[in-house]
Design brief:
218 residues, mainly alpha
Amino acid sequence: MTEQSNMTGPAGKDESTAEKKTNPWLKGLLEYGPIALFFIAYLRLKEQSFDIAGTSYDGFIVVTAGFVPLMILSTLALWKLTGKLSKMQVLTLVLIVVFGGLSVWFNDERFFKMKPTLIYLIFGGLLGFGLLRGQSYLRVVMSEMMPLTEEGWMILTRRLCAFFLALAVANEVIWRSLDTETWVYFKTFGLTVAMFVFFMSQAKLFQLHGVEEAEAED
């Protein structure tokens, strides 16, 4: 028996890495609160211009400058409360800091608008790479949330890979061809609704390939 298995608690899970229990409302507030504040702040400041150190910044850039540290603080608070951050959360935060910082530094909103494209390309690319190897990387990060058969994971991974790539294309088309306000609405609501609709549309897959938790652990 390995050292890791000796540290496993009665429920069969590593207690040292188990996610701390926290209020789901508070967790949701930390995850989605910064996005909501970004949207509200943009609506209030979108028509304004700010002269800072001799440089003129529009409302979008100023809101982005506030959004980056807010995301850092909320992510750190989420980690403190839950004791855990997913790789996707860490990657998303890194890209927000990098592309948000570039937008503010160069006073160019295009960097921040490109961020969702890169995020979805990375996620879709990683899933696609796993599929080429005959593996479902999605299972690694989501197996505890929804136990599925091996076939079910492969089907869901293929669909989600295609979905992520479609979102990347959609983001590029919208920010390049439409105005900033339309993109903000798409970023705040469109992507969230699209993700919700996608997983709701997989209900039949979950029903056909779902397994009991005890069976999944075996």
